[in-house]
Amino acid sequence: MKRYKLIVAYDGTNYCGWQVQPEAITIEGVLNETLSKVLKEKIQVIGASRTDAGVHAYGNVAVFDSETPIPGDKLMFALNPYLPEDVRIVDSCQVPDDFHPRYCDTRKTYEYHIQNGKVLFPTQRLYSHWVTKPLDVEAMNRAGQYLVGTHDFKSFCSAKTQVQTTVRTVCDVHVEEVPASSGENVDNRREIIIRVEGEGFLYNMVRIISGTLIKVGLHAYPPEYVKTVLESCDRTLAGETVPAKGLFLKKIEYL
């Protein structure tokens, strides 16, 4: 029996998140079904990040144990033809038998995508949050710096969060305007990405951080207000939990 690692990319639009749920289509469920079918043995993957319904990924990580003779680096080619078009294995390899995707030191990078303009382009409607009023990217960047470091992020997690501690370490927060992926000739259309890197995240943490930074960008809050929110440990002072469709798990780095 050997252990294999998969780097998984997916469009989360049609899925009820990563984790297997009764009578629901999930990324984990699709992977288990496809792996079991192709390898002709019962397979259950272990995921690194249990993304929510509607969240997308460029590089989530899953591992599984198997007796397959297929070389680790060839598994992606064996599996992709049998996966739905909105799920793809972008890399595969064999790893040590004791490798666990959730119990290793990691740095995760999430991106929150925003379409900022008068019109939400149809091609972006499933992959970004629409904000009509102009956002002040510089103010959002100043606000984000208050979140860098090891802090109690209780103000930035959902009430549903059940963890032993709400202390987390955020390594970097960066907000940037990027070239628009469509509609370049349309006035006042901008594409903005909030990028958050950290060693671990709480339930809905990145979406609440994004919602709070959007408020700063709209000048509803001054940048220094984020420090007040952080120190208060009061969820009601932070911004809204923005929609899942704008969130992407970009990568997971193992340190």
Helical proportion, percent range: 10-25%
Provide the β-strand percentage band.
25-35%
What count of helical segments does DSSP give?
Answer: 5
Average pLDDT, rounded to a whole number, is: 95
* Structural class estimated from helices and strands: alpha+beta
Number of strands: 10
Low-confidence stretches: none
Main pleated-sheet profile? 10 strands, mixed
Principal-axis shape equals: globular
Distance linking N and C termini: 25 Å
Radius of gyration in whole Å, from Cα? 19 Å
The helix/strand series, from N terminus to C terminus, equals EHEEHEEEHEEEHHE
Summarize the structure in words:
Helix content is 18%, strand content 31%. The chain has helices at 27-39, 75-79, 137-144, 205-217, 225-232; strands at 2-10, 46-47, 56-66, 87-95, 106-116, 129-131, 149-152, 167-178, 190-198, 247-254. β2 and β3 form a beta hairpin. α3 crosses α4 (205-217). The longest helix is centred in the N-terminal third of the chain and has 13 residues, at 27-39.
